[in-house]
Structures are given as C-alpha cells and as structure tokens.
Amino acid sequence: MASNGPFRVLLDGACPICRQEGYFLQWADLGRGRILIDDIASPGFDPGRYGLTHQQVMGQIHGITSDGRVLRGLEVFREAYSAIGLGWIMAPTGWPMFRPFCDLAYKWFARNRLR
User: Fold this and answer.
1) The pLDDT of residue 3 is above 60
2) Number of alpha helices (DSSP H) and beta strands (DSSP E) in the chain
3) Which helix (H) or strand (E) holds 58?
4) Is 83 exposed, middle or buried (0-12, 13-18, 19+ CB in 10 A)?
5) Taking the CB of residue 105, how many other CB atoms lie within 10 A of it?
6) Residue 70 forms beta bridges with which residues?
7) Phi/psi zone of residue 44: left (φ > 0), alpha (ψ -120 to 50 degrees), beta?
8) pTM of structure
9) Distance between CA atoms of 57 and 109, rounded to whole angstroms?
10) pLDDT tens digits along 59-113
11) Which of 4, 18, 106, 108 is deepest in the core (most CB within 10 A)?
C-alpha cells in the first residue's frame, strides 16, 4: 500500500458483481479501516471531488490512495487486496507475461458488467 491511510474504492453498486466485491473487501478488512467503499451509483456520489467525471467512474473501477493518487482498472484490485493482506491473490495479474491479457479481460468486463 502506498501510504498508511485507507484505500478508497469507487465501485458501481448497481452492478451485482461489483457490489459483492465491495462486500468481500470490507469483510476481509476485518474492521481495520484499510478499505473504504464509495458507491458511484448512489445519488449523493460526486466524482468531481476526486477530479473525475461520471463517465470516467462508470467506465472502469477507480481507487483513491490516502495521498490522493487515482488508480484505475486492475491496479485498484491489486492495491485493495494488498491493503487487506491478500495481495498474493492479485499479484499474477501484474506479472509482465499476464498483465496485458488480464487488463484486456478487465476492460471487457467493465464495459459489459451491467448486461
């Protein structure tokens, strides 16, 4: 994890798979406060507070580090799983041999998640 503060995950609560992932991350955090979930589908959510647009956050998952850096796509999952001590699960998605395929698969999922 980049810093000692919580990692904020911006996920689409209207997507059942995304919502389950958020529940899992919060459960695996064990109340330590390392993961915060923001539902981008909730009426009060304002992506502008992170310098993002509605279209950007709907296009793929975003994460905000405690020092304000914005992460996108699978990098969000790698950071989130690392924050809760399960980084080894997502590590292969960042390996040079697998990363292009994994990133492409995630982009396909993100575009089609609500179908």
Assistant:
1) no
2) 5, 4
3) helix 54-59
4) buried
5) 13
6) 64
7) alpha
8) 0.90
9) 14
10) 999 999 999 999 999 999 999 999 999 999 999 999 999 999 999 999 999 888 8
11) 18
- Give SS3 for 12: coil
The C-alpha atoms of residue 66 and residue 115 are separated, in whole angstroms, by: 33
Task: Determine how β-strand 70-72 pairs with β-strand 62-64.
Answer: antiparallel
Nearest to 28 by CA among 102, 82, 94, 92: 82
**Cβ(9)–Cβ(3) under 8 Å?**
no
Q: What is the SS3 assignment for 64-103?
A: ECCCCCEEECHHHHHHHHHHCCCHHHHHHHHCCCCHHHHH
